[in-house]
Amino acid sequence: MASNADIANAFEEMAALLEITGGSGFRVNAYRRAARTCADAPDDLCVVAQRVPKQLEAMEGIGAGLAARIAEFSATGTMADLAELRAAVPPGLPELLELQGVGPKTVRTLWKDGGIDSVAALKAAIESGALSGLPRIGTAKSIANLRDAVEHHLAAAGAPKRFRIGQALPIGEAVAARLREVTGVAQVAIAGSARRGRETVGDLDVLVGIREESAAERVSESAVSMEGVAKVLARGPTKVSLRLAHGMQVDVRMVPMPVFGAALLYFTGSKEHNVQLRERAIARGLHLNEYGLFPDDGAAAPQDRGIAPVAAADEASIYRSLGLPLIPPECREAHGEMEWTEAPRLVDVSDIRCELHAHTTASDGQLSIVELAELAKSRGFHTIAVTDHSRASAQANGLSVERLLRHIDAVRAAEQAVGGIRILAGSEVDILADGHLDYDDETLAKLDLVVASPHTALRQDPATATERLLRAIRNPFVHIIGHPTGRIILGREGLSPDIRTVAAAAAEQGVALEINAHWMRLDLRDAHVRAAMDAGAMVAIDCDIHAAEDADNLRFGVMTARRAGVTPDRCVNCLDAKALARWLGRRRGSGH
Ligand code: DGT
Ligand code: CA
Ligand code: CA
Ligand code: ZN
Asked: What is the mean pLDDT of residues 428-439?
């Protein structure tokens, strides 16, 4: 599925191609504005295009025509206009735009004045010195920049494409469910980076435990005949590799049940974790491979020489034989887990007892307050916070102070009407570029809960971003910093604050840092959460609910938390109702 960044890139390329070919400045600007709007859109535009296409037109600078192109792109992965524009220039020309620091003006000069129509032609021209006569770009400095850009581009060209966990894992689960139905299959598990809960997945690894050898062929047949298989990359007696229509690769491996644990351990990785495990085995006179943990007799492939394994059927017994607790897959990243004497009691989805970041139809959500509360009740939550956007988020229909005050009344009324769940009147208030909040303190004081989030000016330098977040953390009315960096996975970098400084301030002020559970965000990311844990800060794992299905993203936030060693006592969503009320009140200097 296309990301917002993909859509933005398509518009950006259209603008650039128009500019190169001398198209109308008005259209160039329109496409460029659309690109910016799409890149900054908080929602997944493909999802919006499928669900409520009309909503696209509510975005800044997006009229019916551009909305139709977004819909076309999300359905087909391309735009007819873009294809037409590409066809109008030499085939190698658009690639020049991918070079760092090379815009349409430069490409036009290269093409019209230098006859350069591809990256290869540019490389040759740089090497032969043919560029030095050209206007504007013929200077030594500019040529050196171009040389760097070409080198970087050629190096990156071989890098494989990755997918976000929220797209990959459901596909893996569908594959696993199908293979589970095959006769002779005893167990199916997802392995690899998807099991470890990485934010992106290179390919899916699915492990199938079979009861008898004859089942392997049936598994392989079932796999290759799945809907959505674009290509069978490899098919052997124990392994099938497939490419799915949207480009994702799936590796399916069939193993006999007695070695399922060893295979699962091996194919879960990470590679670095496996290396450390094998070294540990050697130090103990053992030999670890994907068939089991064996006594080490100095020779290879013990499984082929009739040597009985010390452990092989399940992961726990292998870890135990290596003197380790069962290490949760999320923690198998060679981040010190070999030192563990016991496994920490990591936060789990079932520990989460409230949602503290959710939107209603008052701003850009799809649910009413009552619907949101019912959803939270169905999850067994004791509390749901209504945190619609503040006024600066105009594109998300953020609330003026007057609307906010009326909204608080509506929340109180809904709490009475629904019953059985605490509904907090909150706000997701914008952290403005300089760290000031979008509502004044007097207004914030009226709220039960304040989530403060950066939404704009996400390209600030690290020092400014750090100061910005610190100022928000020090505001006495703030409880949670929402998606602190504003990054979009595989989309935009977001802020790069000094996370240690931010985490230390959060710990000192009693402010929680959010792990936004949406798989496009996962913000804080795992490394940042680790910093938060080291600093003694609390985290909030929230779904930032805009639509009912967003609540299902909780597991991605929890996986990210587990990767960083978060225990339930460090997550505000694990507090019971009373403790949560105390925590919220403490920031305001009251017992609540
Ligand atoms: P990915 O697919 O790039 O998101 O990352 P992984 O971790 O899923 O990597 P992948 O699919 O190449 O391999 C799956 C697991 O299999 C990996 O985590 C560890 C194991 N594995 C694969 N190749 C090797 C290897 O050459 N050496 C070791 N020790 N383990 C390997
Ligand atoms: Ca993989
Ligand atoms: Ca793989
Ligand atoms: Zn939000």
From this structure: 98
Spatial CB neighbours of 245, under 8 Å, sequence gap ≥ 6? 228, 229, 230
pTM for the model stands at: 0.77
Nearest atom in ligand 1 to 192's CA: 8
For 205-230, how does the pLDDT look when each residue is reduced to its tens digit (9 = 90+)? Answer: 999 999 999 999 999 999 999 999 99
User: Is 135 within 8 Å of 113 (Cβ atoms)?
Assistant: yes
Q: Which long-range contacts (CB under 8 A, 24 or more apart) does 339-344 make?
A: 344/565, 344/567
Substitution site in 199, 255, 267 for ligand 1 pocket (most atoms within 8 Å of beta carbon): 267
Report pLDDT digits (tens) over 321-354: 999 999 999 999 999 999 999 999 999 999 999 9
The answer to whether residues 396 and 429 touch, using CB atoms and an 8 Å cutoff, is: no
**Per DSSP, which regions of 313-362 are E strands?**
354-355
Ligand 1 atom 31, closest CA: 271
102 vs 91: CA distance, rounded Å = 17
Looking at all shown ligands, the one closest to residue 396's CA atom is 4
Q: Structure tokens of 292?
A: 């089991």
Q: Categorize the per-residue pLDDT at 579 as very low, low, confident or very high, splitting at 50, 70 and 90.
A: very high
User: Measured from the CA of 275, which atom of ligand 1 is nearest?
Assistant: 29
Q: Which ligand is nearest to the CA of 514?
A: 4
| Rounded Cα distance, 343 and 224, in Å | 39
Closest by CA to 587, choosing from 568, 567, 574, 572, is: 572
Question: Using one digit for the tens of pLDDT, what is the confidence trace for 302-314?
Answer: 999 999 999 999 9
| Torsion angle of C-alpha atoms 154, 160, 164, 168, degrees rounded to 10 | 160
Ligand nearest to the CA of 160: 1
pLDDT at 65: 92
The minimum-distance atom of ligand 1 relative to the CA of 278 is 29
CA-closest residue to ligand 1 atom 17: 269
Residues measured by CB to lie within 5 Å of ligand 2, the ion: 192-193, 203, 205
